[in-house]
Design goal:
By secondary structure, the chain is mainly alpha-helical. It has helices at residues 18-22, 34-40, 69-81, 85-93, 95-103, 130-140, 151-155, 168-175, 180-198, 204-215, 230-249, 255-266, 280-297, 301-318, 345-362, 364-368, 370-376, and strands at 48-51, 54-57, 106-107, 112-113. The chain has a single domain (18-376), classed as Glycosyltransferase, CATH 1.50.10.
Length: 381
């Protein structure tokens, strides 16, 4: 198989991907009866927090629970996926308080909702994670976000990004000097930033970046951004390549590589049904990769559905809190009646519902009768 992407410039996938087309993220899940809705919504409304005229959601009901930009975004997503518009009306009633909290995340230096992201040079981390979430929350509440920076003037605000001086190839190679996964993450976030600043989808600059990314593909697994851990490579491929790059602009990977990625992802599944390190995040990453690439290729249908069902069973059996909530990380599960860290229940539950959304995009039975299909795989609600 060749690494060259011969169809660069042909946008053949709807923006957001085929899963989004079949099962939109901010739409109710299929087959959610009252029993299922009540089960999933039993805990998280207690996570609402109001202080100093600002409103948000915390990760659990504890007064010292974590709260990041994505926490409140996840809570809102839960409401939409459960079709719980009555609770969302309460959010709208307090939308100015939510807006006030969101605006505390805005950076005048960078002119984005920076949140917990870092724009420091030579520090490889999330750059463009929180801004899209903040803007989406404001959009859901029919509130106007602050303008995003634009053009080369906007680019100069971000010292880590390629400043269009010197060699692009040298900058891309330097990004990978500390590891391919970290490098691909940096490159994909730069390309995301560039598209928004320049208001382009795919230009010559973008083609050069994509060609470089394809040159980093691991021949054995198909993942782009492989160091020495296939699990992390899969998760990086999902975030950096599938979500932040190809699905965002509508590019389709060559079928032979999609098949290789699906096979490599399924190989990461353990006997208990969970992927990689067993976290909710790892399982959501894997299930999205499998669902999206199956819809794009039509390959490995039975294997994909069987693998996703095992993962769904695994999270209900091993990551469920018991009150409709889920653990986000395996280290947050109580050991000897003592939790090692404050559990992220809102994010855990939101990611679990995302997995169900991906599942329903490829499994007609789960789409037609969710409760019955859950029962068939050994899960009773």
């Amino acid at each position: 198989m060749k690494n060259e992407f011969s169809d660069i410039g042909k946008l053949t996938v709807p923006k957001g991907g085929l899963v989004e087309l079949v099962s939109p993220v901010f739409s109710p899940l299929h087959g959610l009866n009252k029993k299922l809705k009540n089960s999933f919504s039993a805990f998280w409304e207690k996570c609402y927090h109001e202080e100093n005229g600002m409103a948000s959601f915390r990760e659990n009901a504890s007064p010292d629970a974590d709260e990041v930009v994505e926490t409140t975004a996840c809570a809102m997503r839960i409401m939409f996926q459960l079709g719980d518009m009555e609770r969302f009306k309460k959010v709208l009633e307090n939308r100015k308080k939510f807006q006030k909290r969101i605006e505390t995340r805005f950076s005048r230096k960078y002119m984005i909702y920076n949140g917990n992201d870092s724009q420091d040079k030579d520090r490889f981390s999330w750059r463009m994670h929180d801004d899209p979430w903040a803007r989406k929350m404001l959009e859901l509440m029919s509130l106007k976000a602050k303008p995003f920076p634009s053009g080369m003037e906007g680019l100069r605000r971000f010292p880590w990004a390629f400043q269009h001086k010197g060699s692009l190839t040298r900058w891309l190679e330097n990004c990978c000097s500390k590891g391919f996964r970290a490098g691909v993450k940096e490159i994909s976030q730069y390309y995301y930033l560039y598209r928004r600043l320049m208001n382009v989808v795919l230009d010559e600059h973008g083609r050069k970046i994509i060609s470089f990314l394809f040159s980093l593909r691991d021949n054995k697994t198909g993942f782009i951004g492989m160091d020495d851990d296939a699990g992390w490579a899969m998760r990086g491929h999902r975030n950096n390549i599938l979500v932040y790059t190809f699905n965002d602009i509508g590019l389709r990977e060559p079928v032979e590589w999609q098949k290789k990625v699906m096979e490599s992802t399924m190989a990461l599944q353990k006997k208990d049904g969970l992927f990689h390190d067993g976290s909710m995040c790892a399982n959501m990453d894997a299930v999205q990769v499998l669902a999206e690439y199956y819809l794009q290729t039509g390959l490995l249908r039975d294997e994909i559905i069987n693998s996703i069902r095992k993962s769904i069973k695994g999270i209900f059996k091993l990551l469920s809190v018991g009150n409709g909530a889920f653990y986000f990380k395996t280290e947050q599960i109580p050991q000897k009646n003592k939790e090692t860290s404050s559990p992220w229940h809102v994010s855990g539950t939101a990611f679990a519902l995302e997995m169900i959304r991906f599942w329903q995009a490829v499994d007609l039975n789960a789409r037609k009768d969710l409760e019955k299909t859950l029962n068939e795989i050994g899960i009773e609600i």
